[in-house]
Design a protein that fits this description.
The chain has one domain: Arp2/3 complex 21 kDa subunit ARPC3, CATH 1.10.1760. It is built from 10 helices and 2 strands. The protein has helices at about 1-20, 25-45, 55-65, 65-85, 90-110, 110-115, 120-140, 150-160, 160-185, 195-200; strands at about 115, 120. Helix 3 (about 55-65) packs antiparallel against helix 4 (about 65-85) and helix 3 (about 55-65) packs across helix 9 (about 160-185). The longest helix has 28 residues, at about 160-185.
Length: about 200
Amino acid sequence: MFLNVSILSIIVFALLRSERRLDDSNPLAMLAILAIFGISGRILLEPLPNIQPVTVIILLAAVYYGAPRAIALAGIIALSSNLLVMGHGPWTLFQVVGWGLVGVFGAMSSNYVLKNGELNLQRLGLIAIFSAFAFDWVVSSSILMKTDISMLMPYLINGILFDLYHAVGNLVFVAWLATPLGEIMLRHKVERSSKAVSDVAHN
C-alpha cells in the first residue's frame, strides 16, 4: 500500500509539472490529465476499502467546467479503470450514473463553493461527504438487477461503514488535492460563451 501511495504521489507530481506546459485555456487537455489521475488513483488505491480520489476529482471538474464535462470524465474513468483492472459489468453503468449525479450536483453548487476564484474547502468538504453517500447508494441500487426492492434497505444499512470510509477519504482528498487542482483548473477555465460574445460585440 505504501508503494502504491508513493507511485500515486509521483503521478500527481508529474501531472502537475506537465500542466505547466499546456496552452492557456485548454480545459480538454486538463480533463485528460484529470482522467489519468482518476484512473491511476482508483487502481492504485483499490486495496483500501472504498477510498479513491475519483469522487473529488469529478466534483472539482463540475465546479470549474460544468456538468457535461464532469459526466464525460465520470464515464471515462469508470469504464477505463474497470476494463483495465477492476472488472467491467452492469455495475459500471451505475458507477457512471452515480458519479454523473455528483457532477450535476457539483455544477449546481459551483457558486456556493467558488467565490471570485477562491475555493471554500469547508463547503467543498461538506459536498464531498454528501457525494460519497449519494454515489454509494446509487451503485448499491444495482442489486435490484438480481433481487427485489425489499433487500435494498438492509443492503444500504450493511454498507454504511464503507460509505463512511468513502466520506472520510473524500475529506482527505479535498484537503490534499482541492487547492492545487483548483488553481490549475482555474488557469484552464475558458470564459462562458455568453461573456465571450458580449466581449466581441463590445469590441
